[in-house]
Amino acid sequence: MRVIRVVAIALSIGMSMGSAAMADGFKNCTKLDKASWKPASDAEAKAKAAGYEVRRSKIEGSCYEVYGVKEGKLYELFYSPEDLSLKHTIAK
């Protein structure tokens, strides 16, 4: 019984650490109501204009998260839907 409990604890600790490592996104870009946000396609267009090959985009918290490739490297770009300013960049 003791071995099973130790394994269960180790698995739960490992799973919680894994999910924390996955959640590296930037989430706070604006307090503006979603009805007032600019279109997500405008954030993609801004990334393209900056030289990124856009792979996909999504909403992350109150940000537009755009996945793009530049010079062979993957980036996550976080834009404010309020004014489309770049708030954060993560190189993968």
**Helical residue percent?**
25-40%
Number of helices: 2
Low-pLDDT parts are 14-23
Strand order of the largest sheet: 1-2-3-4
The pLDDT mean sits at: 83
Please state the oligomeric state of the protein chains shown: single chain
Largest sheet: 4 strands, antiparallel
Architecture overview:
The protein is α+β, with helices and mostly antiparallel strands and 92 residues long. Strands 1-2-3-4 form a four-stranded antiparallel sheet, covered by helices on one side. The longest helix is centred in the first third of the chain and has 21 residues. It is globular, with a radius of gyration of 18 Å. The chain starts with a helix and ends with a strand. About 11% of the residues have low confidence. It comes from Bradyrhizobium neotropicale. Keywords: Signal. This is PepSY domain-containing protein.
Question: Which descriptors apply to this entry?
Answer:
92 residues, alpha+beta, Nuclear Transport Factor 2, Chain: A, 4-stranded antiparallel beta sheet, 2 helices, 4 strands, PepSY, PepSY domain-containing protein
Blueprint (SSEs and pairs):
Elements: H1 2-22, H2 40-49, E1 53-60, E2 63-70, E3 73-79, E4 86-91
Antiparallel strand pairs: 1-2, 2-3, 3-4
Structure summary:
This protein has 92 residues and is of the alpha+beta class. Helix content is 34%, strand content 32%. Keywords: Signal.
